[in-house]
Write a structure and sequence with these properties.
single chain; alpha/beta; TIM Barrel; eight-stranded parallel sheet; globular
Amino acid sequence: MKKLTGAITALATPFKRDGSIDVEALRKLVKFQLSEGINGLVPCGSTGEAATMNSEEYQLVVKTVVEEVRGRVPVIAGAGSNDTLKAVHFSLLAKQAGANALLHVTPYYNKPTINGLIAHYKAIAKAVDLPIVVYNVPGRTGLNLTSDMTLKIANAVDHIIGVKEASGNLGQMMEIVKKAPSNFSVLSGDDLFTLPLLSVGGHGCISVVSNEVPRDFAKLIQYGLNGDFAKAKVLHYKLMELMNANFIETNPLPVKTALSLMGKIEEVFRLPLVPMEEKNKLVLKDILKRMELI
C-alpha cells in the first residue's frame, strides 16, 4: 500500500431519527469529502460511533463508504477492541467490505503490557492480511503508547504501516518520526497538532475538523508537506477556533451537531451520547456562521 499522507477524515456516521444507519446521508457525506479533495477516509472510528454498532451495521457502513470511494482514496476502517478476538472479527468484516487498511486503537481498560500489545497486534496481522495503523489515544484508553512502545510494535509486527498519535505529546511524536522505518506514517490524531507535527516531519492527520472543512484542511496539510509553512499557518489559524470547538463537548457531539447545522446529516446520537448543551451549541453555531459554513 502507498504510504499514508495528507488529510484523512475520521468520518461521522449519520443516523436516522429512528437510530438506524442513514445510508443515503452517508453516501452524500462521502461524495462531499471526495469533491473537496480529501486524501482518505476512516469509517467506524470513535468519531463514527462504532462502539454502538453491531456487526451488520459496521459492515454496512464500511461497505457503503468503499462503494462511494471507488478506489479514489484509501479507506481505513476502524476495527479496534479491547478484546483481541473481537478486533479480529471486525477486521475480517472490514476486509470483506473492501477496506484498504485498518485502524486499531490500543486495547482500552485492560491496559496491557508491551508484550501484550505486540501479541494483540500480531494476532490481528496473522488473521487479516491488511495494513494496520495503530491508534494511540490515552485520553480514551488509559494507556499511553510511548515512542519506544510504538517503535517496538512497528518493528515486531508485519503490516503495521503507521500510527495515529493523539497523546498530545509533541516530543513523543518527534521521537517516532526520527526513528521510524522509512515507510511508516506518523499521523496526528489531534487537529491542533497537525501543523506542528508536519513541521518536524509528520505525514498528515486523521482528522475531525475535516468533516466540516475538508478542502481547507487538505490544503493546510499539503502546504505543510510541501514546506510552505507560511500558507499552512494562515489556514491553521483560520480553522483553529473550529478545531477547539469540536471538543467543547465529547467528540463526536460537536462535529455531528455542526454537520446537522450545515444540512448534511440529522442531529442524532446513540446512547450513552446525548445532544450538546444549548449554551455550547450556540457557541458552535456562532463559529460556523462567522466561518460562513451555515
